[in-house]
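Standup, Tuesday
Yesterday: got the pipeline producing structure tokens again.
Today: sanity-check two examples.
Blockers: none.

Example 1:
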Amino acid sequence: MENVPFKVVHFNNGMHGWTYSENEYKSAFPSLVDELHKIAPTASFIWATITPVKTESSPGPTNARIDARNSIALAFVAKAGIPVDDEHELMTHHTDQYEDNVHFNAVGAVIQGQRVAQLIRGLLSNVAGTL
């Protein structure tokens, strides 16, 4: 992906890596954002919150751990001035759209995709207005 002139980067991290503690997640999260800035230094960024799971599995994904990771990421992105796409809140209204315990079905994907597209279009129009 290097040397591609991204205008907007919509990113998320959190549904994988359950073997890592929340302390490890917290310590590594700034590096993730730093690496994205290196790859796309002039891009605008949007952070997408981690969506809830339908059925929790220990030691894997639980909604308490998702809430903790969202809080960690939100504290960081707020300080960095990165806008937030609250996919977590959005999908709490669509709990009938799970495909399995953690993924959403095609209807759920459309709901998420429409939100993402709206936010990206908004940032792109802001970028175009400053050129």
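Example 2:
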Amino acid sequence: MDIVHIAGEDRGKIMLYTLSTCVWCRKMKKWLDEKGLAYSYVDVDRETGKDKEAVMEELEHWNPLCSFPTVVVNQKECLVGFKPEKLQEIIGND
């Protein structure tokens, strides 16, 4: 699985499941970048074979509808869609 790690301020483990062509996914990444936060992401549509099966299994665990972006924080909370205000609540205010 090709997980990309972006360096920044650690506010917990933030994992994004995204599509390379998704406007809302790009907005979520841009928001995190502008905040200077550390996060990881995987472009699900770029995975193949066993890696795609594995990432889809993870995604379905958190979001059975498999919609994008799906954001998982600290392996505990899941947000579906571009919801920066809600993510800010979960990770703490600046």
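Quick observation on example 2: The two ends are 32 Å apart (CA to CA). Strands lie at 4-6, 14-18, 39-43, 70-73, 77-80.
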